[in-house]
Amino acid sequence: MEKIRWGIIGSANIAKGSVIPGIQQSETGEVVAIASRGLEKAKETAEQLNIPKAYGSYEELLQDPEIEAVYIPLPNHLHKEWTIRAAEAGKHVLCEKPLAINANEAKEMVAACEKAGVVFAEAFMYRYHPRYKLINELISSGEIGDIRGIHGTFTFNNANDSGNVRYKKEWGGGSLYDVGVYPISAARMILNEEPKAATVHAFFSEKHDDVDMMASGILEFDKGVALTFDCGMWAAFRNELEILGTNGRIEVPSAFITHQNEQDHIIVHTNDGKRELEVPYLNQYALQADAMGRTIRNSEKLPFPSQDAVLNMKVIDACLTSARERRRVEL
């Protein structure tokens, strides 16, 4: 299979530290160009990561006929503009999460990509790791019984980095956008349904442009099942998921970010005791690139269609409304 030729629009840390190396380690892709707002920065990043071409503007990269697909790690408020411009230039698009600032923007982006006939995916790398297939098999086997609830956490402390784009309200800053999207998307994926209502309480920090630095919430699903979650950018690091059943529970100590150690194993608790299921270390970003590469080259069905991102943004919209207005929001 001829490798997909990727261009990177922006030099954010997530691109340099995770996604670019992931594409380079993938079976289906190679990174051939990177663009930044200044040529020097683009050249510096290209040299660091062995990328052949560097551009001093995003427009120049989109004009490069060699590039087939682009990855967009720009601040959230720029996702819509550059996804649509990339689609109009005929490039397939992998856009960093959250897809947009709201569900309406996400709908416009999906429509533009469909009109242009390009593949469009949201960069939720964790979903491509086979541990979630294993989790679904465990649930389907009935080992833990019927699901009664899911609890997810994703927190970290970066509050001292006052100039970070995560702390700019108009740019789509805040913990719900940045890390709350993970447990929310995981619950939707595991339950294979959409929540009916959201209730969220948040800490909005005046020191950080009034974005939510911590949020705790509940999403109501069918049959009395709920996701309880918390997310934060001014708290100790956690990255966990628990699926509670009538006869047992599944514990995922490293639910979204994987590490090359035993903490990535899945732990199953039942009346028969506790057992650990070994999960191999795999580069989630490479798996994500390969899924998209097979869709582009072989017309394989994208595991997570772009419409899923619209639905996830709809939930985030409800969570933010609930937190701001301090009320339960029906979806």
UniProtKB/TrEMBL annotation:
Residues 4-122 form the Gfo/Idh/MocA-like oxidoreductase N-terminal domain. InterPro entries: Gfo/Idh/MocA-like_OxRdtase_N, Gfo/Idh/MocA_domain, GFO_IDH_MocA-like_dom, NAD(P)-bd_dom_sf. It comes from Metabacillus endolithicus. It comes from the Bacteria. Signal peptide: none annotated. Belongs to the Gfo/Idh/MocA family. This is Gfo/Idh/MocA family protein. It holds the Pfam family GFO_IDH_MocA. Residues 133-251 form the GFO/IDH/MocA-like oxidoreductase domain. The keyword Oxidoreductase applies. Keywords: Oxidoreductase.
